[in-house]
Amino acid sequence: MPIGTDEELARLSSKELIAIIRRLEARIAGQDRRIAALEEEQREAKRAKAPFSKGTRKASPKRPGRKPGQGLFKHREAPTAGPCDQVVSIEVALPEDLRLCPGCGVALSTTHEIATIEDMPAVPKRVIKRFTVAVGRCPQCGWVCRGEHPELGPQQNGATAHQVGPQVKAQALALHYLSGLPLCKVPGVIQQTTGIRIGQSALTQLACTLSGEGGRLQPTYTGLREQVGRSPVVNTDDTGWRINATLAFVMGFFTTDTAYYQIRFRHRHQEVLEVLPIQGKGKKRLIGTDRGKSYEASVFNGEEMQKCLSHLLKNLSQVEETKTGRAKHFTTRLKTLLREGLDLWHQYQSKEISLLAYRRRGKKLQSAINEHLRDRKLSDRDNQRLLDGIGQQEDQGRVTLFLRRPEIEPTNNRAERGLRPAVIARKVSHCSKNERGAPAYATLKSIFVTLSYRTKSAARAFANLLRGQDLAAACDF
């Protein structure tokens, strides 16, 4: 704000000078407030904070745990003993002084109920297999040969003579790739629970060796991709990742019993086609996705696709919060119709209604949605944007596909849940440090998650894979 030269100020009246002074005072006061706010931000930044803290306290924080009406509540089920489990049966009798009813003196009729406690030995028993290997050496030329055993590696001698078995390897890798425990903490957990020492670098090298080119797990990983590619219903999603601090993407593809992950520097429709190739004429795959641009390519026009209703409802709610009066009708009505569709689908999945009733009610609901999304001009710009975008998807049958094909989920929740562990791993790590670690993460993550879908003990099944069994035999125990 220019004030003027001395000559110009000298020609001003006292009132004009006072007005200039007031403006300068207001300007200085605003700058003082800004400086104070910046200083407070600097002090706040230097204070120790919990990770991801927003620096604000909630007025009414929610209680932890499952909220009423959310999810299915189930009591803990009685454990089923496996072939390797030890079962100890203990009879608990009534006290001697309670054999008769204390009120009327009649003998009590006795029934029995089952209560269980699952525990593990305080000191687990290690199985140490000591191999005495015969070594033949030519005294003249020094040629050496060794005895062979199926459990011994070809180079297991000298510095690599003492190794851990497949079960320990499987447990260690499961803690990281399935349970999400940071790799640096895995050796400590293994030593505390089993007494066996194993290094972090050994686990890293093991993962890269198993999943690398020619590795033992490479055929299994390739087989998972083929299984997903042949599946009639697939849910897919992606999230950000980094390889050596360079932006990349983790893409997940999920069926009811198979999970497949791949990490690429780019996420285009070409990367999606690596897993979901276009099928021949007359064959259509059901794909559940969000509204990512990679799935909007014209190459997918022949596929039946269900857009995630949770994303649509979230977008509608965001616009609805900014509107008042009649401007809220479009979003409110559409949200009501979509939620009716969700409720209808859940009723069918829980077998509350028959397939015939589902299709009859679904046809009426689809007609109401199509009527609400008909092509027209709306006075509100945000509502018009939603109508154009969602209406275009519905013209391709990608909003209400689940009403015609109940085998596809109306939301992309399956893929969202499948990618959640990768999101958590991204927050607590530096993702993949190099291009060798990225395929290792994708391979082991795919196999462990798939095993968790198909069996109760993914670690035991993974140990069977390390022993040379195929995927089907590894899960059969």
CATH class of the domain at 210-305 and 413-474: Alpha Beta
Mean pLDDT: 88
The CATH architecture of the domain at 210-305 and 413-474 can be given as: 2-Layer Sandwich
| Structural class estimated from helices and strands | alpha/beta
CATH topology of the domain at 210-305 and 413-474: Nucleotidyltransferase, domain 5
Order of helices and strands: HHEEHHHHEEEHEEHHHHHHHHH
What is the CA-atom radius of gyration, in angstroms?
33 Å
Instruction: Give the helix proportion (percent range).
Output: 40-55%
Return residue spans where pLDDT drops below 50 for at least 5 consecutive residues: none
Keywords:
alpha/beta; Nucleotidyltransferase, domain 5
Folded structure, characterized:
- The protein has 477 residues and is an alpha/beta fold.
- Among the domains are: 210-305 and 413-474, Nucleotidyltransferase, domain 5, CATH 3.30.420; 309-404, no CATH class.
- It has helices at 6-10, 14-46, 166-177, 186-194, 200-211, 218-230, 269-275, 309-320, 329-349, 355-372, 381-395, 401-404, 413-428, 437-454, 458-466, 471-474; strands at 135-137, 144-146, 233-243, 246-254, 259-264, 286-289, 304-307.
- A hairpin with a 6-residue loop joins strand 1 and strand 2 (144-146).
- The protein starts with 5 loop residues before the first helix and ends with a helix.
